[in-house]
Amino acid sequence: MHQHEGVPVPAARRDKVAPVRFAHIVFRTSRKEEMVQWYRTVLEAEPSLHNPFLTFLTFDDEHHRIAIVEMPGLKDKDATIATMDHCAFTYASLGDLLATYQRLRETGIHPYWCINHGPNLSFYYRDPDGNQVELEIDVFETSEQVSDWYAGSDFPDNPIGVKFDPDDLIARFQAGEALEELTRRPKIAPADVPAQLPRD
C-alpha cells in the first residue's frame, strides 16, 4: 500500500512491537486534594481509587488516566527547568470543546491561551501546580489531511499558530457558521508563546 508523503508508517505495519495506546499521566504534588478536584472538574473525571497518598482518576473505560501522588514539601517548578511541556486531551467535536470552555469558565477556571495551531484548535489551562493542560479538537479527520495542510500552509513561517477570542468563536458557532470556517487558521503573524505564569 502506498504511504502518503509525510505520514509515518505505523509501527505495526513496519513489523515493530509498539504500545497500543497511551495509558496515563502521573503527577507528584504537595497539593493533592486541590489537584484531584481540578482534574475532576476539568476532565469530568471520577476517582477509581482514592486515599491520602494516591488518587486514580478516569473519564472513560480505562481504570485510570490520571494518577496524583501526595509528596509533602515539593518545590514549585518554574520556566527555567527542563520538563514535559504539557499534556493534551481531545474532544469529539467543536461543540463539545466550546461547551467545556463555558462550563469551566462558570467554575472560575479560565484558559491562559486560546490558539488555532492549524491541525488543532486548542484551549490551554494551568492546573494548581502550574502544569499546562491542552483541551483541543482535531481540525482534520486523517493524518493525510494534516500532512497536506502542512505542505500547503504557512506553517514553516508560523509553527505556533494564531490566537483567537473564544467568546467570538462561540458567537459564530451559535450563529451557524460552517465548521470549516470556524476552524480555518488565518494567515497572519504567529502568536507569541506565553511565558510561564505564576500560580494564582
Chart the SSEs and their pairings.
Layout: E1 25-29, H1 32-43, E2 46-50, E3 54-58, E4 66-70, E5 86-90, H2 94-106, E6 113-116, E7 120-126, E8 132-138, H3 143-152, E9 162-163, H4 166-174, H5 179-183
Parallel strand pairs: 1-4, 5-8
Antiparallel strand pairs: 2-3, 3-4, 6-7, 6-9, 7-8
**Main beta sheet, described?**
5 strands, mixed
Number of strands: 9
* Helix-strand category: alpha+beta
Give the overall silhouette.
globular
Spatial separation of the terminal alpha carbons: 52 Å
Q: What is the name of the CATH topology of the largest domain? A: Signal recognition particle alu RNA binding heterodimer, srp9/1
Order of helices and strands: EHEEEEHEEEHEHH
Task: Indicate the radius of gyration in whole angstroms.
Answer: 19 Å
Taken together, the total number of domains comes to: 2
